[in-house]
Amino acid sequence: MKILLVEDDQALAEGLARSMRDAGVLVETAGNGQRADFLVTTEFYDAVILDLGLPDGNGTQWLSRWREQGIELPVLILTARERWSDKAAGFSAGADDYVTKPFETAEILFRLRALVRRSHGHAHPVISVGEVSLDTHSGQVTRAGMPISLTAQELRLLSRLIQAAPRIVSRTELSEHVYDRDREPDSNVIDVQMSRLRRKLGSGSIETIRGQGYRMTRDVDA
Fold it and tell me: In this structure, are 109 and 146 located in the same domain?
């Protein structure tokens, strides 16, 4: 999961970003609406955390702009404003969820994972393809009921594939949503990590579609 955090309080942004990275989430930050607008329109994210009180305009104004441009990625508003009128304005602008400060990082993570999961059409937190299951809340992966240990990077790859299934996920999409844009993978990194995933999940769990990308399958070999 790759998130854009839009927050002008540098200490809060750094603390939240650090906690989310510790939980395996890729996080990029923006301290104002203009920077966020540039990133949202030029980069790829699974969701945005948006503060309302930005130095260059209310967060709802930027959100309305994105929605008018057809940018549909999930947006979680994070703010100290508790009045219903502020919440209503946020939802009217196109927000998907709302959390007030102070907050628990765990709650932010739960809400983000739910938003991203639902954006892929999954209502239940546990997503299964064949014998492979992923609990999107805990990050627990099982094969035929047995737990599988994955690295953080392998988990991000699997999460993208299993939430997109049965759609084919291109190498470009994986690079944009799974890897930090400042650390784009070498040409063979994805292949190597896919090979490791297959060894752990079963050789038939991930299919390579030549010239197109990868997709999860229901056939899992030993």
Answer: no
pTM given for the model: 0.83
- DSSP structural state of residue 145: T
Check residue 186 and report its DSSP letter: P
Residues 160 and 207 in one domain: yes
pLDDT, tens digit (0-9, with 9 covering 90-100), for 106-146: 999 999 999 999 998 898 999 999 999 999 988 999 999 99
CA distances from 185 to 83, 128, 139 (A): 44, 27, 23
Q: Residue 146 domain-assigned?
A: yes
Q: What are the distances in angstroms from CA 146 to CA 80, 102, 129?
A: 43, 38, 14
Does residue 93 sit within a domain?
yes
Looking at the structure, do residues 169 and 65 belong to the same domain, yes or no? Answer: no
Q: What residue spans of 84-151 are helical by DSSP H?
A: 84-93, 105-119
CA angle (138 as vertex; 134, 141 as ends), nearest 5: 30
> What domain range is 50 assigned to?
2-119
